Amino acid sequence: MTKLLAAILLSVLCYSATAQQPLPSDYLSKEFHKGRREALRKLMPANSVAVVFAYPERVFSKDVNYAYHPNPDLYYFSGYKEPNAVLLIFKETQQGADGAYNELFFVQKRNALQERWTGKRLGIEGVKEQLGFTHVYNDEQFANYPLDLTRFSKILYDAFPDDAGAGMLQTLIDAFKKKAGIEKSLSKNLVEDYTMLLKYTTAANLAARINRIKSKMEASQDQEYKTDALLNELMQQPDSVTLVKVLGKLEQMSFESYAYNNVVGMLREIKTTEELVLMRKSSYYSAMAHVEVMKAIHPAMSETELMGTFEYIHKKYGAEGEGYPPIVGAGANGCILHYIENNVTQVNNQLVLMDVASEYHGYSSDVTRTVPANGKFTAEQRAIYQLVYDAQEAVFKLCKEGTPFRDLNIKATEILANGLLKLGIIKDAKEVGQYYIHGVSHHVGLDVHDKFSGAVLKENMVITVEPGLYIPKGSNCDPKWWDIAVRIEDVVVIGKTSGENISAAAPRTIDAIEKMAAQKSKLNDLVLPKF
């Protein structure tokens, strides 16, 4: 056998081995991503360009990184899931040395040595063949690519990550700033706070917003953020008059990140048919994990074991992981909204609040169930649970096109306040905020708290409905209610006349939960050797 023939045979065998590796067949298609870029162009202003960077890699420990999670926007518009990249989408067709183009993609270059350690990269040819792009270049070519961005009337881009580091991603950002003539850009914290003030802040919730900003400022090391004139103006005089003045100044600023997120939010808030398929799968897998946990739970279990049961079921279905850090809080821990330690060794005869959901092909669900570890609700637990359930049922009825988003929380607050009054837990409806401390809904999709733009529900939006009550020890009520925490959360697709609960496979009623808890999980049969 000649060397040439042997090389050809080896190549064929290697290709065959690779081709035989079974991969999921339901990823979003390159046609989907191309369609999203075309939809973005229709929303962009004349003579504009949208610029989307990859997310940075983040350190887990010393020289080990966390599993990489792509920027959802970059994935949405391209299907690309690697770091060190920038995508430019132009409103109009451009003319360059390589001919006509309306998008340029600079991606992580191939590196045979690195790929043996961290996995295969698509590179230029892979992006062309698998993702359908024409004008693709290595990331290191961006700095010298002949492109004057200052000639565009509008450049749309998101806030730059604060932790880009000193590697290729920062090099791409620096090159972009130079090409766009950007001398100074707003920090991510400022972009987030300005956006929240502009879009979601009213005189009614101003105090809560101010408290959040104060907390962020105290924790931040960013002096520019801490001393921002507009934010501090609100801090010094937090009233409706000052709010109107500050909002007026923000509207005049018209900062690019706000414009970027407006148009991207208009797209991402409405799910396409392809996205809804993945959202339904992710929500079903999440619901079935809750079902298995209801069967498996018993007082001697740990929060960690319960969390592991969720994760196992998700992976068994083929989900890549969870859409957010799992929350498994027994008793008092359930009163901590984002409790993620999950380290109590025995949940005992307590309610266990479990906010855990899968991420499937990039799409996160968001499902919460609250279950008594011994399978039976006490009278007090039953009363609080039923009240939260009633609030969720009332909000479900509003989940249809045309409903103002704010009406969902107004309805939930009303039901919960009236119920707490009847139970004698509060004496005035205004006190409901002591025990209902979050909103009832948010959008969900590629981000668990997904991007959106509008204030009114539209068909094929996907939102959560998640009323909750949290009564920590020491609350100003009868101690029999202390340490009871209940949240029920489901994922709803908005329809023309009603919503579709796509996580309904997980029981919600008291009777259905107790009935499911009476069943036995096969996972309980697994007994591991003791250390």
Strand order of the largest sheet: 6-5-4-1-7
CATH class of the largest domain: Alpha Beta
The amount of beta strand, in percent, is 5-15%
What can be said about the biggest beta sheet? 5 strands, mixed
| Uncertain spans | 3-19
Number of strands: 18
Counting H and I runs of at least 4 residues, what is the number of helices? 17
Query: Please, what is the CATH homologous superfamily of the largest domain?
Result: Creatinase/methionine aminopeptidase superfamily
User: What gyration radius follows from the Cα positions, in whole Å?
Assistant: 26 Å
CATH topology of the largest domain: Creatine Amidinohydrolase
Indicate the structural class: alpha+beta
Helix content: 40-55%
* Number of domains as seen in the coordinates: 3
What CATH architecture of the largest domain do you see? Alpha-Beta Complex
Question: What does this entry show, briefly?
Answer:
This protein has helices spanning 3-19, 30-43, 72-78, 112-118, 123-131, 168-180, 188-200, 206-219, 223-226, 229-236, 240-253, 256-268, 273-296, 303-317, 379-396, 405-423, 510-517; strands at 48-53, 59-61, 64-65, 86-96, 99-107, 136-138, 154-157, 321-322, 327-330, 351-355, 358-360, 363-364, 368-372, 462-465, 468-471, 484-487, 490-494, 499-501. The protein is an alpha+beta fold. Strands 6-5-4-1-7 form a five-stranded mixed beta sheet, with helices on both faces.
